[in-house]
Amino acid sequence: MRAAILREYGEPLAVRDLPDPEPGPDEAVVRVAACGVCRSDWHAWMGHGEWADDRVPRGQVLGHEPAGEVAAVGREVDRFAPGDRVVVPFSLGDGTCPYCRRGAGNVCADGRALGFEAAAPGAFAERVAVPTADYNLIERPPWLGATAAAALGCRYMTAYHALAERAALSGGDRLAVHGCGGVGLSAVQLGAALGARVVAVDVDDDALSLASDLGADRLVNPESLSTGESVPERVRELTDGGVHVSMDALGIAETCRNSVRSVRPRGTHVQVGLTTEAERGEVSLPTDWMTRWEVSFLGARGMPPTSYGDLFDLIEATDVDPGALVARELSLSAVSDRLAAMDEYDVKGVEVVTDFEG
To answer: How many whole angstroms separate alpha carbon 187 and alpha carbon 158?
Structure first.
């Protein structure tokens, strides 16, 4: 099979032929039809994460947003068979730990991160092996095509978990989304579907235009603010004193602090974006101010496999279209250039690999 391999940090991926994976007893092998290219792939490609003992090793097959169909299953797999249409979450649980049993497999004590560790080769490849398939694999509804399902991959389901499950966003709430890349735009679309009024914040007017198309009713470009006006001040002005929920979808210190400062008393900030070399995993926060106004700070990583049914129900009930986020379809050989484009924030919407031979 063809696969894209991390050779050196920041250098083009090596596209090579590798042996097809064979399923272990509890595993399924999925024939990949589409796989999203995400900013988390960029973090891996850049070699970030060593400050948290989370650096992706050289030699790793990257890619963590796959959709396709089952090609083969191990003898212990009961729920799936060859030909089944599936989505693969990137946060893979063992299905047995206390977190998995309570429906939080995304923080499994013995979990694996697809495409980010040697034990879980990724899906920038024609085939990918999925451990504990009966727990981790998700059946893909008939109405959900592979490309749109790949767009659900990490960004969309992360946004859903962050807003609906972690921050408990509800109808009538005000939501601010700081950073309108893939996960930010997903949050805009899902926030509107959940009944919130959404403020989108980004320095790129094209990204803000897309956010408006996806449901944002207020737009803030920090570079267009009047002299002396800050992003939190503008958000609070637009939302009668601040938002109920604010998300940092980028992960730099400025957007994190702006997000925290944008919430109203007893509001919630949810952190989704991972930090870069500049922050190295740590951002200073206005803790006295947060204490005074009882502001909550939450983290959100991926989504438990058990939550996909709720997300599918929301999409079907509201006619939300995750495929509308897909801005470009790619060949496997083009992934390196698109990762490099992320270095300059030069990617709009979601880009998906659909050609694994080119």
So the answer is: 9
Provide the token pair at 215.
């449901």
Rounded Cα distance, 205 and 125, in Å:
34
Residue (of 281, 271, 231, 263) closest to 247 by Cα position: 271
d(CA 78, CA 246): 41
**Minimum mean pLDDT range among 224-228, 267-271, 296-300:** 224-228
pLDDT at 312: 94
pLDDT 10s digits, 66-115: 999 999 999 999 999 999 999 999 999 999 999 999 999 999 989 999 99
Residues 130 and 24: beta-carbon distance below 8 Å: no
CA pair distance 106, 339, nearest whole angstrom: 25
Number of neighbouring beta carbons within 10 Å of residue 310: 14
Mean pLDDT of the chain: 94
Order of strands across the sheet with 296-299? 218-220, 197-201, 174-178, 243-248, 263-271, 296-299
Residues 263, 178, 188, CA angle at the centre, nearest 5°? 95
**pLDDT at 323 (0 to 100):** 85
Q: Is residue 179 classed exposed, middle or buried when 0-12, 13-18 and 19+ CB atoms within 10 A define those classes?
A: buried
Token pair of 346 as six digits: 């030069």
